[in-house]
Amino acid sequence: MHKAFSLSVMEFPLPGEVPTASEESSHCQKKRKATAMKIALLLKSRRN
């Protein structure tokens, strides 16, 4: 008789839980835009 091997089960997140490349790049673009806005506001406030 063969004994059954107990295979360890690895859990992977569902595709809906993993951000796609386009979602990640848009997130980075939003962060970059927000940072640029903050810098612009800081420079503007320093001039006054």
Brief rundown of the structure:
The protein has one helix at residues 21-47. With 48 residues, it is mostly helical.
Low-pLDDT parts are none
Radius of gyration from the alpha-carbon trace, in angstroms: 24 Å
Order of helices and strands: H
Tally of DSSP β-strands: 0
Topology:
Layout: H1 21-47
Structure description:
With 48 residues, this protein is mainly α. 56% of the residues lie in helices and 0% in strands. It is built from one helix and no strands. The longest helix has 27 residues. It starts with 20 loop residues before the first helix and ends with a helix.
Structural features:
56% helix, 1 helix, mainly alpha, rod-shaped
